Amino acid sequence: MKLIADNLRVTIPVIQKALKDKNPSSVISLVKECTQKGAWAIDVNTGPLGRMPEKGMQFFMDAVQSATHLPLVIDTSNPTAMEAGLGLSKGRAIINGFSLEPKKIEKILPLAKTYDADIVGFLLYPDSSVPKDANDRFEIALDLFEAAEAAGVAKERIIIDPVVPPLAWENGIVQAREVLTVIQTLQDLSGFPVRTIAGISNLATRARDKDKKRRITQSYLSMLAAAGLSYALIDILDDELVKMAKTADILVSEDLFSWGMLPE
């Protein structure tokens, strides 16, 4: 289970200010810290970037790539910004992402072929609503693979995001279990190796108690690891969460064990 830092988000006030002032120092500092903490990749969550998406994306890509050589997950719903980011990428980039929404199939999915990139596929209906159970998610996954191949993108390039729900939803805890079922069984049902990705922060949306929020996040992340999750989007600056993730990964992936394998 590879850990992707989700700390770089344009919704964070200090990052918003950096973009507004065109001062990359805060972005560079954050990315360096995420790299030092052992992230496998950096999620560059720029948002849609408004009226000048190319300039905004260039600001972020220049700043991030001056601070790290890690793979980048380019996270924007704006096709113009996405293409600008892919064109500026100096190394491996992952597109985050597309769904069955017609505009995303038309505008974002083809970029995976143009730039020879992996792309995240969200298990959402065309209207962006969340399916109710694992069976519906399986059907959407098959539709995503079909759409990809129709666009000339190999289905193996798709990284499936089953969409972790907030537990605050009326059926949130049931949905969270359905996500685990999808991760466990999607590969067998698809007939080829399917990679999966999950954003952990969604789970504790609206949680006010920080201790309970951390406890539920850590517990669920260990369950995702056991289910076979390929990539976890997490707060890489949360040392305890990272230790837990690495420990869970040892338990599910290693045949031989020694206490020295555990993170300090």
List keywords for this structure.
264 residues; alpha/beta; eight-stranded parallel barrel; TIM Barrel
Explain how this protein is built.
With 264 residues, the chain is an alpha/beta fold. It has a single domain (2-261), classed as TIM Barrel (Alpha-Beta Barrel), CATH 3.20.20.20. Helix content is 48%, strand content 14%. It has 10 helices and 8 strands. Strands 1-2-3-4-5-6-7-8 form an 8-stranded parallel barrel, surrounded by 5 helices. Helix 8 (172-190) links the parallel strand 6 and strand 7. The longest helix is centred in the last third of the chain and has 19 residues, at 172-190. The chain is globular.
Strands, helices and their partners?
Elements: E1 2-5, H1 13-21, H2 25-36, E2 41-45, H3 53-67, E3 72-75, H4 79-88, E4 93-98, H5 102-107, H6 109-114, E5 118-122, H7 134-150, E6 158-161, H8 172-190, E7 195-199, H9 210-227, E8 231-234, H10 239-253
Parallel strand pairs: 1-2, 1-8, 2-3, 3-4, 4-5, 5-6, 6-7, 7-8
